[in-house]
Amino acid sequence: RHGAVEEVHVSVKLLPLLSKQVVVDAVRVKGLRANIVKGKDGKLNIEDLTGSPPDKEKPAPKGTGPGVQVDIAGVEITDAAIGYTDQAAGTKYALSKVNLKTGRIAPGVPARVELDLRAQGDEPKLDLQAVLKTRFWFDPGKSANLDDIQLDASGAAAGMTKLALKLTGSAAVDIAKEQAAADLAGKVVDSNIKAKLNVASFAAPVIRFDVEVD
Length: 214
Fold this sequence. Notes:
The protein is mostly beta strands. The protein is built from one helix and 14 strands. Strands 1, 2, 3, 4, 5, 6, 7, 8, 9, 10, 11, 12, 13 and 14 form a 14-stranded mixed sheet that branches. The chain is globular, with a radius of gyration of 20 Å.
């Protein structure tokens, strides 16, 4: 099975659709269960749900161009679980107890985002409980930003069985210029850390970073 869901609620206002605006009062998903499998042939088991790859020669469907404005009052995902298996590599990963809550999502509007989850994997060994709080805003097709990042994670990862991670900072993506940057600081176990990351050219990324650890 691809998965299941216990409850889904989406409330769309019809009148704004006349002016190419999709205004959603709320998106609520409870009890999502998704199982994604990449077979030895490289194909995903969900390809029958997503359809065949889009034909570049075909024009985009009407109403999907940049003229459509999306405004969502908030997204709430409760108790989700997502599994991923790569049969060729022989690896399995799982996200469980996933809870996501956001404020209003609309162009240029800062939205508070709260995410907590448990991430597990077998190769390499991974078992982390993580909580992320941040503020997100975007300009469609141009940029996306995260500030006031607060990340707390603990568990087993990177060969450590008692990993404790606390980070704060900000991140930004400039889609037009194909650049991304992050500025983070915090503690890894008992060490203070500062890190700056810059990525240029998404097709063939050039990655630069500075890291200071005491």
